[in-house]
């Protein structure tokens, strides 16, 4: 199973504000859709609620500590290990799409194989940040420049 983080990060590490993106849409949503289509996506409840619905053509697995929480068309998990186990039953490629707690837990657990990062050329105010990463453990394997952002792919370096 390959676990990939997909995230848009401002120059200052900000990834969100008030449950939404802290910048206007960048155009990377087409790439996000192409990348994740047909694969399971793991996300926190707040991220799911900011999207507001299951995204077509993908299985949404939502992490929540609330055992009563449910939403039509999504699977629920009580932690990252159970979410990844559910996802692995569906496909070999799993995408973690937010938020900051999910990213931090996955990076800390060492389960992330790849990161696809939209580097937004802004430094907005926010209330959610991407966790600290030891970039010596990652190798940039691709970068595509766009107007106002770059999309870079990083693969974990074998220990």
What key attributes describe this structure?
159 residues, alpha/beta, Dihydrofolate Reductase, subunit A, 8-stranded mixed β-sheet, two-stranded antiparallel ribbon, globular, EC 1.5.1.3, oxidoreductase, DHFR_dom, NADP binding
Describe the structure.
By secondary structure, the chain is an alpha/beta fold. It has one domain: 3-Layer(aba) Sandwich (Dihydrofolate Reductase, subunit A), CATH 3.40.430.10. The chain has 4 helices and 10 strands. An 8-stranded mixed β-sheet has the order 5-4-3-6-1-7-10-9. It has a two-stranded antiparallel sheet with strand order 2-8. Strand 9 and strand 10 form a beta hairpin. Belongs to the dihydrofolate reductase family.
Helices, strands, pairings?
Layout lengths: L1 E8 L4 E3 L12 H8 L3 E5 H7 L7 E5 L10 E4 L2 H11 L2 E4 L3 H10 L4 E7 L7 E2 L8 E9 L2 E8 L3
